[in-house]
């Protein structure tokens, strides 16, 4: 049996979710199933009653996250300063849907979009404290960075070919000379530390706020054990000025992240911004292109400042 969906991803819709629940978790079969207001791309999420959600991967590449989160989030949660998803049950393929899926507790809050965060500097400190707490969690036996984390936590060199292709495509659009220097510095700043936990996608869409304060971090699909530099990208995508400095200072005070980590983080930020800019120029998405340019300019200026300091 196949299903349709409002955006065509993986044949997922509310009717499929109802059938999966009825077949595998009949105790919840009478609960209403409704799409969430803001959904992601890697997974589709539905409310199940008022206290639960159902989360289904949209493609095979996102499937490893199901077991990873099911296994590791309960171990990480007690050591973290804000809420993370609580997995209630893990579903199996069925009803024409080919992947494992999960049932979770609903977490109250809104994504940390502009206008929802109270004091951005205080928020930056809270995010840094979360990253530091995650990094301190016991990494023994944790999933080493690789394909399951889309190579977050691994050396940024994995994306070298893609980055250089984007630099070639964007010649005349961005300052590719300075951007190349940023990328080369990221590749040269080899990480030699012990593997630690990283989230892999610390971004406003995965940070929940209530009353303007950070209350939860969601979507650990790209998490793993390795180099935590990828969790610093938010310094340029979301923070700036006083908030960026507060973010950095929180790590500095904790004795974490040397200049090499920040160089690799700038590389991660640059790679993604170049890729998104290239795609948005092709699609005509001017808003996304403008935001990518902003991130690139922030990264280039930050690299220049650190180079002058050195």
Describe the structure.
With about 300 residues, this protein is an alpha+beta fold. The protein folds into two domains: about 90 residues, 2-Layer Sandwich (Phosphorylase Kinase, domain 1); about 200 residues, Aminoglycoside 3'-phosphotransferase, Chain: A, domain 2 (Alpha-Beta Complex), CATH 3.90.1200.10. It contains nine helices and ten strands. Helix 4 packs antiparallel against helix 5. The chain starts with 13 loop residues before the first helix and ends with a helix. The N terminus is likely disordered.
Give a short overview.
The chain is of the alpha+beta class and about 300 residues long.
User: In CATH's first tier, which class of the largest domain applies?
Assistant: Alpha Beta
Total helices: the number is: 9
How much is the radius of gyration in Å? 20 Å
Order of helices and strands: HEEEHEEEHHHEEEEHHHH
The total strand number stands at 10
| Straight-line N-to-C gap | 62 Å
Major sheet summary line: 5 strands, antiparallel
Structural class: alpha+beta
Q: Based on the coordinates given, report the CATH architecture of the largest domain.
A: Alpha-Beta Complex
- Overall number of domains: 2
**Fold-level CATH name of the largest domain:** Aminoglycoside 3'-phosphotransferase, Chain: A, domain 2
CATH superfamily of the largest domain: Aminoglycoside phosphotransferase (APH), C-terminal lobe
What's the rounded overall pLDDT mean?
93
Shape: globular
| Residue windows where pLDDT falls under 50 for at least 5 positions | 1-8
Q: Helicity level, as a percent range?
A: 40-55%
Question: Strand arrangement, largest sheet?
Answer: 1-2-3-5-4
């Amino acid at each position: 049996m196949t299903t349709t969906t409002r955006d065509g991803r993986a044949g997922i819709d509310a009717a499929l979710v109802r059938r999966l629940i009825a077949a595998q978790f009949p105790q919840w079969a009478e609960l209403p199933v409704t799409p969430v207001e803001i959904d992601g791309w890697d997974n589709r999420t539905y409310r199940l009653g008022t206290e639960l959600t159902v989360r289904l991967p949209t493609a095979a590449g996102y499937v490893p996250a199901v077991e990873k989160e099911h296994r590791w989030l309960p171990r990480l949660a007690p050591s973290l300063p804000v809420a993370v998803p609580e997995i209630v049950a893990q579903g199996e393929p069925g009803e024409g849907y080919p992947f494992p899926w999960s049932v979770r507790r609903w977490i109250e809050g809104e994504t940390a979009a502009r206008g929802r965060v109270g004091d951005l500097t205080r928020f930056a400190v809270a995010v840094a404290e979360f990253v530091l707490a995650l990094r301190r969690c016991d990494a023994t036996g944790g999933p080493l960075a690789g394909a399951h984390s889309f190579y977050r936590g691994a050396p940024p060199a994995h994306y070298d070919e893609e980055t250089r292709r984007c630099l070639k495509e964007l010649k005349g659009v961005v300052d590719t000379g300075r951007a190349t220097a940023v990328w080369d510095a990221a590749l040269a700043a080899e990480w030699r530390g012990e593997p630690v936990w990283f989230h892999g996608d610390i971004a406003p869409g995965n940070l929940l706020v209530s009353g303007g304060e950070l209350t939860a971090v969601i979507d650990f699909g790209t998490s793993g054990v390795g180099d935590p530099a990828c969790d610093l990208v938010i310094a340029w995508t979301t923070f700036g000025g006083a908030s960026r400095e507060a973010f950095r200072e929180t790590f500095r005070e904790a004795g974490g992240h040397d200049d090499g980590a920040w160089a690799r983080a700038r590389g991660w930020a640059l790679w993604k911004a170049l890729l998104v800019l290239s795609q948005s120029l092709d699609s005509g998405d001017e808003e996304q292109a403008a935001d990518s340019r902003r991130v690139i300019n922030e990264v280039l200026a930050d690299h220049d400042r650190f180079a002058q300091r050195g």
